[in-house]
């Protein structure tokens, strides 16, 4: 039984400012929304979970993912998936190349890698687009590819750093449901940072405010 993401007695200080002071467990498939004013420490918290927070921050407490302590592990060994405001697709790789890049190196065979990429595209409603150049995709298609790329890396947790804020209003609802549905279906504990209260309402879970 997976225990999800645990942030135990976690505090993040910058000089004499206490930015984050939190004790939180996010269950598999649960989506927790994190809100707070600019500079309150939301991105710092995500950075700490990823293992990319610079040492200028003073951090106490423990981060555990499914019973593995992440503190001290290199970012690439943490199984943390993150989506940003920008989809960050590699412009020099095809759509399929972007997806294949994320596959764990343990999946070696070319046929198996192609099959995984094709299945991911199909489940995102993008079947047949593997050879396309990402610049030729619509905003919605790019957002879907970005999520599939994260999922193909087989993360144990999903972090969302304002991932819908650059999407047109009409598209936003659609991509939100796409991301939330897949996060739940994959049983991923999910932590979403946002400034948009509608994101929190759509996630239909706990909302935490940093002040
Ligand atoms: N590398 C760094 N070195 C020093 N201070 C930093 C660094 N990165 C961020 N900070 C400071 O840490 C504080 C928290 O920043 P953080 O980016 O976590 O806030 P945030 O809540 O994500 O803000 P926003 O909503 O604007 O993204 C801010 O005062 C910021 O200036």
UniProtKB/TrEMBL annotation:
Species whose genome carries this gene: Thalassospira lohafexi
Coiled coil: none
Origin: domain of life: Bacteria
Keywords assigned: ATP-binding, Nucleotide-binding, Transport
Residue ranges annotated for the ABC transporter domain, each copy included: 5-210
One Pfam entry name: ABC_tran
SMART domains for the chain: AAA (SM00382)
InterPro entries (alphabetical): AAA+_ATPase (IPR003593), ABC_SmlMolc_Importer (IPR050093), ABC_transporter-like_ATP-bd (IPR003439), P-loop_NTPase (IPR027417)
One MF annotation (Gene Ontology) recorded for this entry: ATP hydrolysis activity
Protein name: ABC transporter ATP-binding protein
PANTHER family, alphabetized: SPERMIDINE/PUTRESCINE IMPORT ATP-BINDING PROTEIN POTA, SPERMIDINE_PUTRESCINE IMPORT ATP-BINDING PROTEIN POTA
Alphabetical list of SUPFAM superfamilies matching this protein: P-loop containing nucleoside triphosphate hydrolases (SSF52540)
